[in-house]
Queue: 4 jobs
Job 1
Amino acid sequence: MSRIAYFGPVGTFTEQAARTFTTAQDELVAADTIPQALNAVRRGAADAACVPVENSVEGAVPATLDSLAVGEPLIGVAEALLPVHFSILTRDDVTEIRTVASHPHALAQVQQWLAENLPGARAVAAGSTAAAAVAVQAGEFDAAVTAPVAVEHYPLKVLATGVADVPDARTRFLLMRKPPVAVPEPTGADRTSLVAAAVNRTGALAELLTELATRGINLTRLDARPNKQNFGEYRFFIDFEGHAAEPRIADALAALRRRCDVRFLGSFARADGVPATIDPVARNEDFTEAAAWVAAVQRGETA
Ligand SMILES: O=C(O)C(=O)Cc1ccccc1
């Protein structure tokens, strides 16, 4: 049995994502914030944490990136991808909706719907979509933008379902564990994720990206977050296709490591199953063959 912490309370999208990682024996534990879910793993109160990392409309989830970049390192072992559309919940006694609360990512994804359907309502940020439902129950706000499952936990009136300004919106979630972890086996459709603290000088980011480009490695995400210490200095969150167990990826990781501080955030199967693009001159067998040739040269066996 494992204890899986997730960004809660019960009824968030993250809870739905966490369920995709668990069996009936596992215990799900709600945390009020993303750092709290990750810290539960760091201090051993949970075996893993499920957190949102990226949305197809709004991009990165800053709280997740910032909490993964500092503190005890955690390693991603799996990801989940959920379609994201929203329900609008209110109380029976509400006659006029003046405030609508939700997680900022949810509010951003229903802006147009709110402008058309509740033009007088003020949008208010809440800790999570489910925290907004709790606040509506408590009478703090008139309506909440929630995950479809929220109504099963919070007996509110459903004003609308299937709300989404962008119909095919999706959010990606990570399952993070504390090292040492069992790194999942490569599948051919993997993602590797890391944080690089590029030094602050001309071309530093271009050099990092060139290490990946020259090995034919396809990026799937690049985000920058301030390092919060020196104004203008950033950490780069780089995701790319491939797995650390592959020679071509291992070679790239070593090259990045030589250039700057790197924190490995995991290699795991892509939830969408998209196979890695492989450069015809940078296949794994090319790296293996080249390394074998160098070793033979070093032994004086070949030229
Ligand atoms: O607040 C939630 O339900 C979350 O899990 C975060 C979130 C918010 C909006 C879209 C996807 C995930």
Job 2
Amino acid sequence: MIIVIEGGDQAGKLTQSTMLEKALKKRKIKTKLFHFPDYKTPVGKEIRKYLDGKRKFPPQVIHCLLAANRWEKLDQILDAQEKNSVLIMNRYYQSNLVYGLANGMKQKWLETLDEGLPKADLVILLDVTQKESFSRQKTNRDKFEKNEEFLRKISKIYKTTAKKKRWKVIDASKSKEEVHKEIMKTFSKKIGL
Ligand SMILES: Nc1ncnc2c1ncn2[C@@H]1O[C@H](COP(=O)(O)OP(=O)(O)OP(=O)(O)O)[C@@H](O)[C@H]1O
Ligand SMILES: Cc1cn([C@H]2C[C@H](O)[C@@H](COP(=O)(O)O)O2)c(=O)[nH]c1=O
């Protein structure tokens, strides 16, 4: 199964996807964690430059690149699916939908970019207020993260999309351990334990 950990800036996606990976491996469940964007690939390097303000692209181009970055990893994803029971995605195509909508792109256009990639079985949205996210100090904010107004928009679109698409929303302003417990509860329920 594919579990996606989603959320805005500093929501705790890296923390929680790593804690989940560790917990599943401890239970002897074969698990592989992917991170998107993957900044190490050729397309990923372009995305990094864009987010750092060193490249300029129209929104259509950056959202195509963000999807292309997943297509670059398709063979690795398929291979990982063969070898593991669970794949965890620290962001996946759901991010492109939310950020793309916030950037004025159409839903159908955005969804077509990722059509054909292995689908998510469970999407967990880590919900934090924009205030809480900003209090989790970060020195180098990227192009999308610098704009507070944009981040408020992202938070709103995440919530409405989660409702429409039945993503599991978890209050991520709680402690790391409490959020992890909630994620484990959701996972157990999903697999019928
Ligand atoms: N539940 C929590 N409570 C308080 N601080 C947290 C919590 N979860 C994560 N943090 C802290 O917030 C910061 C961001 O966490 P993390 O890198 O996991 O978030 P992220 O969603 O992956 O961020 P980004 O999208 O910006 O890469 C880190 O310093 C982390 O230790
Ligand atoms: C995968 C993906 C990401 N984005 C956006 C979301 C963030 O603003 C950046 C990535 O930053 P992070 O600190 O490395 O999480 O890119 C997007 O718009 N579309 C996507 O598919």
Job 3
Amino acid sequence: MAENMKTLGEFIVEKQLDFPDASGSLSQLLGAIRLAAKVVNREINKAGLVDIIGSAGQENVQGEQQQKLDIYANDKFKAAMEARGEVCGVASEEEDDFVAFNNTQSKNGKYIVLMDPLDGSSNIDVNVSVGTIFSIYKRVSPVGSEVTEADFLQPGRKQIAAGYVIYGSSTMLVYSTGNGVHGFTLDPSIGVFCLSHQDMKIPTDGKIYSINEGNYIKFPEGVKRYIKFCQQEAPEQGRPYTSRYIGSLVSDFHRNLLKGGIFIYPTTASAPKGKLRLLYECNPMAFLMEQAGGKASDGFSSILDIKPSELHQRTSFFVGSTNMVNTAEAMMADFSGPDAETNL
Ligand SMILES: O=P(O)(O)OC[C@H]1O[C@](O)(COP(=O)(O)O)[C@@H](O)[C@@H]1O
């Protein structure tokens, strides 16, 4: 197919030409992510053969056991971005605090990056697809000055670009700079990402719901009602829907993006603020989903309008086909919102 004969590098440059005053620094940054993705992909593909599986024997700031691949991916993406000079600092799931790059070039970098270097860690050792998630902003502090926490605590709507890499049956890089969502598949025989999914759009309706039902009893009433709605017999509306849950956000998101569907990670009794992290999991996925014609909320309002207050803050996450998210939100409003009492 003709479009396959276009590489990610060529596509990035082509898109840059749409902006005559573009400096090329975002293209450079995307190039860094492309390189790090290939290096991490190589390690993941041979994970069972080299000493990179299993725990690294230490915890991250969120008290989660860090996997060796978490640290490996974190180091590779950080190194690739520091080497380019376009990025003045990064924040990562695997770093307690943000990391400012102090080499002269980076100090003059105008971008900051937030990332989940290895998403779906619980699936690494069992050969189930995992991913990398990234979110890019322009810094708010003056170029050349010290990077500040304010550079990272920007609402998702301010993102310049976002994307993910999925290390699955094939490896893909999917990203958006605010002009549609485009997917590139890595051709391992030539080591190049080739355009395979241009201008991805999610169907407004789907037949897949994705949630860890193992937590059912701890879910808010609105979510319990929505799950029942998905499971009810209503053939004229295509219900019951199918339940699919991989347990890697990137993989569950990617499937729904292609087929239509909804992914929900709500608050639970044991995670009253939700589990997923706003800045480097939910904001980038919400940016992509809105660019693909879908919707992303915390069950009540848009994820992209949340004003962050902490680097590793968590949120509940409802993302996918617009009609499905609208229905779930309506049930949250009725049964878990401020007027829930009157409806129960
Ligand atoms: O095992 P649970 O509670 O269903 O959580 C699965 C979710 O947690 C995550 O694994 C969190 O991500 P990390 O692996 O990066 O910590 C998501 O990818 C996934 O959607």
Job 4
Amino acid sequence: METAPRIGLVGSEGSYGRWLRRFFEQRMGLRVLGRDPAGDTALSERELIESVDVLVFCAPIRQTPSVIRHYVEQAAGIERGQLWLDITSTKAAPVAAMLNSQAEVVGLHPMSAAPKSATLRGRAMVVCEARVDTWRPWLERFLAAAEADCVRADAEQHDRVMALVQGMVHATHMAQGAVLRELAPEVGGLEGIRPFSSVGYELDVAVTRRILAGNPAIYQDIQFENPYVAPMLERLAVHLDTLRDLVRRGDDDARDQLREQLLDRSRQYAGKASVAEGSYAFERLGYLLADLREPRFINVFLPLDKPGSLRALLSVFEQRNINLDSIHSSRSAEGELLFRIGVSRAGDASALQDAMKAIEAEGIGRVVEASGLAA
Ligand SMILES: NC(=O)C1=CN([C@@H]2O[C@H](COP(=O)(O)OP(=O)(O)OC[C@H]3O[C@@H](n4cnc5c(N)ncnc54)[C@H](O)[C@@H]3O)[C@@H](O)[C@H]2O)C=CC1
Ligand SMILES: O=C(O)C(=O)Cc1ccc(O)cc1
């Protein structure tokens, strides 16, 4: 086991490759080398393997098993004593390919896109320990530094779970995107529908758009490369077909069947407590969305290392007799921590302008955005 191992990234120019380089260099103080056909080709595959102690595969899902097989061939035994990792969204095929090497092997799957933050704090990460021996102490240090909520699983269990957690969620939302594309134009288009939004619609549209905004190869490969996705889609289609047939029939028996097959049985399966918990989670998201929709707000970046800065911020409003509707801590699109202060619509606009000036002038924070505050 190396105390300061050199890290090799296969796929170093990709979105996770670039994040991992920063993480290993800046958070763990390690030397990082890489290879990527898209612009990081100084080292051959063999030279990269020879130069590192830990090799991390962060290449596209579909290519990764064959990329790993190629590295196993190129390594031809010199990988003995190394640790090989991957972060692919499927686990069985990449882990099996890595196990054909002589290296110690751990499959990882962070359950989030490469974050804007320096660590994976607050996000889940699946850890498939396939062959770990002398690297265990370093692995533990690495996982602690990553700050993710780690969940251990074997590769097959991971893929079965992901058919539900990712495959099903992506499939239903990609289908929603297609249905909206086909049917929304008849009723005013997406913008025409917007004022009619329910909380559920708003949340689903956000998920759909997140998928559409992402790397299409990932969503494609998650459907095609996980063998448990096709049987899941089969079940999904059965239930949607059933629902359509029942609605077409339209009689009382069909209504009873919908209730029994798609509501009562699933409610019983989930259990009273988790249904109540999920329903409350939805309600809270509804309140949050309502607050975020309020047009009058000030977004303030507060320096994190100053105790009492939130109190100072609030006193600016108190001194000017301004009522606050809501306070949320959130992040800017760039990942910067900020407080979003929703202000009462009844308030005096000039008092608000004055408050904003005071926040900056008194060095309390920086107003990064303000809306609806014109006099
Ligand atoms: N982006 C995300 O949201 C998440 C991605 N992952 C996993 O991370 C891995 C990488 O994803 P991203 O960084 O988002 O993809 P990406 O497409 O941004 O990066 C992949 C990189 O691999 C390179 N590459 C292709 N063939 C290669 C080869 N033979 N040798 C070396 N490099 C090669 C590409 O040129 C590209 O730069 C995937 O396996 C994905 O499943 C996991 C969790 C989340
Ligand atoms: O967009 C997000 O935040 C995601 O959740 C994306 C994502 C894509 C692929 C993964 O394997 C894990 C997460």
